[in-house]
Amino acid sequence: MTVPEMAIAVLLAPAFLYLVLRTCQVFLGNGQGMRAGFETGASKTIGDRETQEDAFGIRETEDGVMAVLADGMGKSFGGKLAAETAVEAFLQVFEDETAFYNPQYSFRKAFNGANRGILKRLNGVQGCASVTAVMIKGRKLYYAAAGNVKAAVYRNRELVPVSSGHTISALAQKKYEEGRLTREEALSLLGRHRLYNFVGRDGFKDIEFFDAPISLYGGEYVVLMSDGLYETARWKDMEDCLEDAGDCQKKAYALIELVNRSQAADRDNASAVLVKCR
To answer: Which of 33, 78, 86, 147 is buried deepest, with most CB atoms within 10 A?
Structure first.
């Protein structure tokens, strides 16, 4: 090899190495919506409402994935701003990859940041949000919630909720199990979906955390759902959507189409966020 040829080879080597690395990234699934062993998808619909008050976000790193869904409530775009502010707070916390090493601390930091951010941004305008977030790291699922956005896991053809939520109905069931309500008292409160906890209020502190991380074995779908989805679509229809062929994005579209095709009156905003552990 001549000296000029050697010089050209040295100059081209970095470009060749970069091309090889980029090719490996594609085949290893490091593209959009597919990284570190995960696949993601999300979709939402405005329903029959005038404003879309749902917001979601997904943060993927080499260490894991975090997904958050916020369902805003309020007037004069207060709910929309509250939901967007909450999602921004979570994405900011989990922008630091060290957040994946202490899930409960990171969730608490994000929820408190979301609460402060909403109160500051709205400055007296009525607005708040239900928020649920999940984090997957090392095939372990962690979740935290405030309000009534549900987190669920689909495996073995069954969609199983993992979060309880902060509705009067869920509170009644909890107090009955603790022996603090009679059966008759609890039954009288079941079915009441009014919220007693959410972000965007003074004195916020009640966060529903995972008792222990949930083990994932590969192939499961972790699903975040706003009440506009799970209170409109039949649970069996949602399971059928998740069982059908297609990637996470296709399944998210299919879930939301259940609401779009529904004949229910006054359909709420509906959102779905999916994460598949491959």
So the answer is: 86
Give the confidence band of 194 by pLDDT, cuts at 50, 70, 90: low
Using the CB atoms, write b or e for 1-18: b if 16+ within 10 Å: eeeeeeeeeeeeeeeeee
**Amino acid of residue 11:** L
Q: Is 128 left (phi over 0), alpha (psi -120 to 50) or beta?
A: beta
List the beta bridge partners of residue 128. 73
112 with 163: CB under 8 angstroms?
no
Query: What CATH topology corresponds to 40-277?
Result: Phosphatase 2c; domain 1 (3.60.40)
Tell me whether residue 140 is exposed, middle or buried, using C-beta atoms within 10 angstroms of its C-beta: 0 to 12, 13 to 18, 19 or more. Answer: middle
Nearest to 114 by CA among 226, 201, 224: 201
Question: Is it the case that residue 45 has pLDDT exceeding 50?
Answer: yes
Alpha-carbon separation of residue 222 from 33, 99, 150, 206, 239 (angstroms): 14, 20, 11, 23, 12
Look up the pTM and report it: 0.80
